[in-house]
Structures are given as structure tokens and as C-alpha cells.
Design goal:
InterPro entries: AP5Z1, AP5Z1_ARM, ARM-type_fold, TPR_AP5Z1_C, TPR_AP5Z1_N. It comes from Cyprinus carpio (Common carp). This is Adaptor related protein complex 5 subunit zeta 1. Residues 1-280 form the AP-5 complex subunit zeta-1 N-terminal TPR domain. Residues 450-800 form the AP-5 complex subunit zeta-1 C-terminal TPR domain. The protein has 812 residues and is mostly helical. Helices cover 67% and strands 1% of the residues. It is built from 43 helices and 4 strands. The strands form 2 sheets. A two-stranded parallel ribbon has the order 1-2. Helix 11 (235-252) crosses helix 12 and helix 36 (698-714) packs across helix 41 (764-771). The longest helix is centred in the middle third of the chain and has 24 residues, at 316-339. It is elongated.
Amino acid sequence: MYAAATESLIKQAREIKEEELQRFCGRIVKLLHTKDVSGDTVDSLQRLNLIVSATKYARELPSDLVRKLQTVLRSSSCPEQLQVLSSSIVRESFPPSVHSLCSDPSHDSRTFSHVASVVLTQAGNKEDVMPLCHHLLKSLESRLSDGQIPRHALPVLSKMSTVYPEILTDDEVNLVSRKLVDWLRYASMQQGASMSSGGFFSGPRTRQPAPLTEVDGVVTGDFFTVLCLGQSYTEDQWMNMYTFSMIKSWLSCALGVMCCAVGADDRSEVDSSVMSMVSATSSSSRLLPPKERLREKAFEYCQRLIEQSDRKALKKTDTELQKACIVESVSVMDIICGEDPSYVYRAFPCIKALYGRLNGDLAYARALLPIAQFYLNHSEIAAVDSEAVFCQLFSHCPAEQFNEPLLAFEFVQFCLLNASVLQDRVTNYRQSFPNLLKFLAWNSSGLIAEFVELLPSLIAPDTAIELLHTILDLPCLAAALDLQQRYASDRTAWDQQGAKVAACLDAFRQPSYRGLFLYILRPEAGTGDTIDRLKMLHEILADMAESPRVVRCAQVVPVLLHVYFNTVTQVRKADEKMMNQLLLVLLERSSQLYNIKTFNVEVQKVFSTHLQALCKLHPPLIVDQSREILELASSPANIYSKEDFYTHVVWVIGEYLSVSYDPRCTVERITSFFESLEAVLFEITQVRQSASPPSFSPRLITVLMTTLAKLATRSQDLIPRVSLCLSKMRTFACSAIVMTCYSEEDTEEIITRAHELINLLKLPNVAQFVLAPSAGGDGPRWHRDTNASLPQGMRAVSGLLHRHSSSLPTLG
């Protein structure tokens, strides 16, 4: 979310008129024609950059301005700030500048990089970037005077091969692979030459190159890697670093496509076995084709990085570099093993040793994800048991590092990428949802989109109900995690909520409440669907209800509930047991929610929607859970605490409590529901002097009246009772106390609905046809077949009612 000032600037940029934009562009053209670059020029370009970037569509700029920006972009003598701004503006503007910029690519490294960013952004197909590609390949083959162009070419080449994997021919892929091997494996082992002052009376002199060192200060004895340190670096050492930074994407895209093109069928069994034997011997690597040799050298490079990461770094920045190198190295080895399974047996001893070293060290939690990915992809081939790896991953990382945003995002991305495999092969994946939801509870605004996609994979038959309770308790989990962090840090107040949190923190410390917090913070499922003292937990956490983190977490719950119910109703349509359990949860939890502003209302709206869906999917639910439904429907207190949900419960009773849906709908059962709802309607529509104004909507009254009429048509002995009840609705609607609360339209709606229902009930068979059509009434046949047309039936009913209207009594 942007600050108010930023929002205002973006709004102004989006709403600028075309005439004003043209005048502003003309002013910039004049500024760019001046020789000296002023602050006004930079400010104007920055404002234009905001204007073209603030909208989803490309802004059309005057052609003379576009040409001038292209000139600035390709001019090596222009300040880099102007080139950066020009590149950003041209990328977002219309018409495209691909062809004009590709016509004569610059040899200047800085300029070439900015031009390439525009071309890759605006290119529509690989033909548009072919000139740029050829220029890149020429620059890699030649040795230019400045020596810089290959360094800037590699990131562009990496991006190009990612977007257009088939743009390079096999010969070109081999050419680049040979270059990458040289840079990756054969960089010099001495530091770059540095100039030093020779003293007051002598000129500067070049120092003798010093040896490179490891992160622990020991002189490097093996080949150069990104973990070799020095005061300055040679050009081939820089190319080594650039090569390692792009090797993962190059192996995945360019070499991956090449391997697919060759195909496994093109190799004989003998050739394959020979290739595996050769690749297993590094001393024979020069006999390999370029792509195989690159894999071999990249594999050795990653092994060396993993070895170097075991050294004790002298600087904290080098420790962070070691962590990043572990993540990248394991990912690269994973790709290599995926392309050539013969590497799996060479890689696993190294990966096992690395896991044994990092396991249990929270500082290296992010590095465990690529290791887990490696086990997931290759443990079956190597016949290695991976259960302990995933048990550690899912049980400890989320529970102990839920407050690390980057780890949370990468962890959820790992689950999303491997959801189907994790469901099938990792037994504790679905059991770990209480831990995974800690990431969402703490980082709700940043992870909601990912969890919407991930949630269906966490739903299992044996834990689905517990998962539903956990989603509903997500704000409680956010509050408990907050208290846990404060307790661990021995700090009561971190923010303005500190005074309110103190009481909650005291409760968190008390042994009598320990069981409540242990349950809400549990690491895995299986300890029970919910707890009996949920109301007590809500009371303990009442002062946390206004915490920003808790409020944000509460806002994502309705979204997750929709995803949950949609998944359950689509995947498990025939699971009657689960349907019954879900309905019981809806009835129970509709009155047991954490008291957060608007949270109860929003959740009950979701409950109402999916109550209808569940009952439509499985109408016998009404009879299966008749005792619980009747208990809720017969209490007028539920109207005032959850009117919307209560209204939908009444509606599904009238809709699905019918023998056409369930033969168990006896007259006695229908009568018991009728009498309960009749008593509720009578109580809430009593007109007394001491009565308070109704706080419920007219919609509830009309739904209650309609449901009673529906039930009466299914047990026609009840028709006189419901007619008497309906005849009193005019008195209620026209009373002074009701007129002060309801509008004229509302009272008219109540009177009209009562009048229509009384008229229908005068003709019981017609009323049953209208109010309680058969279960197939919503099928196409009812609306298309002229012999069974619902509209035709309605017209007949209208005629009957119109003919008898003069003999019907008036309400009053």
C-alpha cells in the first residue's frame, strides 16, 4: 500500500490529459536539444517516466521525442542517469522502438545493456531480437579493446535464452557453452592489479598481484570461485562470477531445449553408457561435447562452493554470501542431475553431508529448501530415504521462523511447485497445515494469493474438519504468535498496542491457559478438530482484537473459506459423512468466532452462501441434522446475533424439508419444524407498548412467512394455522413502532407477501405446485417442454388467483 502523497502523484499521472501530455513532451524535446544537462531535464524525464509507467497500457509519445530518447539511449557520451531514464520511458511507451534500436547496436557496454533491456521488453517474437542475438554472439567471440562487453552480454544472453529458448542454434549453444566453461573453470588465481601511490617524489606504481584468499583468510589452493576473496579482480574473474550467476538459467533453458531436440531415442544404449562413464571421470572431461563438459565443470564448481561454505567466514557479509552460494549450488546440481541421472550418485554424498551440517541451524533455513527439492526429485533414483528431511522441514522451519518474510514466501512457493508430489510422497505434508498456516497468520497480506492456490492441496479426508476450524481460528493464531514473540523477547510493548497486550501476555504465561495456547500453536494436525474452551480463548485474546496484524489476518479468512468449501463440495460430492460434519461446524461456529470488527458478519455471510450449496448438494442433511438445526432455528436470540445466517437456515428448511428430497420427512417432523418457526414469528411480531423497535430486516419476516407456508403445503392440516398467522402481518406492519423503523416499501413488501401466501393457500394443490415444486423443477425440461412448462403452470395459477381474488378476504 502506497503512502497518501505517493497515491496522489500516481493518480495525477494517470489522469493527465492528452493535450497536457503533448505540451509536456514538447518541452522535454527542447530541453534535450540543449548541450548541458540541467536538473530541470532530469526532473522532467522522471515525471514523464512516472506518467508512462502509471497505467497498464502504453502511452503514445510524439515521434520526435521518441527519436530523441533513442538517440540519448545509444549515445555513449550521455550521462548514465539520462540513459536509464530514457530506457525506462521508451520501454513503457508506444510505438515500439525494437527495429530502430536493433539496426545498429552499440559496442559500448553500458549503452548496449540499456538498449537490450528495451528490445527484450518490446519484442513481439524471436525474429525481433535476432539482430541483438547475433551482435551478442559476435561480442563473445571477439576481444574488444575495453574488455567489458562480454560481462554485460551475459545477463542479456541469459534473459534472451529464458524468454526465447529456441533462438540459438546448436552450434551457437556449443559456442556459448565453451566460453562459459573457460570462464567458469579457468579464471586466474591472482588478484587483479591495483595502482598505488609511490610516495611524494615518485609516480604511481603497480603492485605485484597478491594471491586470493578463502572467506576464512586462508590462501586459495584450488580454482577460482565466487567465494574467493581479493581486493580487486581480473576480467576473467569477473566473467567467472557473471557465468555462475547465469548458469542455472542457461542449463534450464538453452541446454534443456537442446537436450529435448536431440531426444533420448537418438542415442544408442552404448553411447549413453559411455557418456555416463566419461562424465564420471573429471580427468576425461575434455573428451566431452561442449554441453556435457559445461555440466561437468558446473557440477565441480558447485561441489567446490559447498566445500568452501563450510569455512568460518571472517565477515558477516561473507557468511551471507556463503548461504546464497549454497542455495544456488544445490539448485544447479539439481538441474544437472535432472538432465543426466548419472550425476545423482556423485551428488548425493555431498548433499547428505551438507544437510547433516545445516540441519538444526536456523540461520541456514532457506538453504534447506533446495536440499529438500533435491531429495524430492532424486531420492527414488538413488534409493535414499527422504522422510526425515521433510519431517524436519515441515515441523521446525514454519514453527520457528514464521516471522521471516523471505523464508515464508520461498517455503510456500516450494509447496506450490511440488504440491502434487508432496501429497503423494510426503506423508506429513497435509498433516503440517497448522504449521504452514503460521506463515499466513504472520504475513497475511503478502501470502494470501499463494495460499488461495495452495489450500486445496492441504485438504484431506481425515483432517478436513480440523483444517476448517484452523482457518476460522486464524486470527487467534496470529494473536498467539504475536504473544509468543513478545514472551520470547521478554518485551511487553513493541507498539501502541502494548498496554492492551499486557493482560494477554500475563494469560500466556499462566499454566492454567497453557493447554489453550499449545493447541492453537500446535505444529501438526491430529490432536483434535477443535477445543471445548474456545470461548475462553476468545476472551483471553479479546484485547488483541484490534491489533493490526490480527485485523489483517481476519480479512483473509473469508477468502480462504470460499476456497475451502468450493474444493470440498467439488471434490467430495459423495462423501455424506463429511457433508454432515461440515454442516455441524457451520451451525456450531456461527456463534463461536473471535470478536473482531466485521469479522463475524463476513464469516457468517460465507457460511450462509455455502449452507445453501451444501444442502442443495445433499438435501438429506436437513433430516440428518434436524435436532441441531431445530435447536438453532427455534431460538429468537440467534436472530439478533447472526441474522443473515439464521435467515438462510430458515430458507433451507422450507426448501429441502420435503418428502420429495428425503422419505424421512414425516408429518411429525414437518410439524415440529413448523411449530418452532411459528413460535419465533409470533414472538418477534408481537405488537406491545413496551416492545422495542424491531432490529431485524423485513427480509427475515418474509422468509419466515414463506417457509411456514411451504411447510403447510406438505402437511395441509397446518394451513389454517399459517393462514391465521399471516392474517396478523398487516397489524404488525402498520403498527407505529414498526413504521418508525421500516420504510414504506418494506412494510408494503411484508403486507404483499402475506396477501399472496394467503391467496395461494386457499388452493392447497396449487400452493404446493408453486411453493414446493418437485426436485427437478430447476431442470431445463421444466422451462423448455411445452407439456411440462413451469411458465405455463404459473400462468394457470395467476388466472386462478385472479378469478378467485374477489372472494378472498382482506387482511386486517
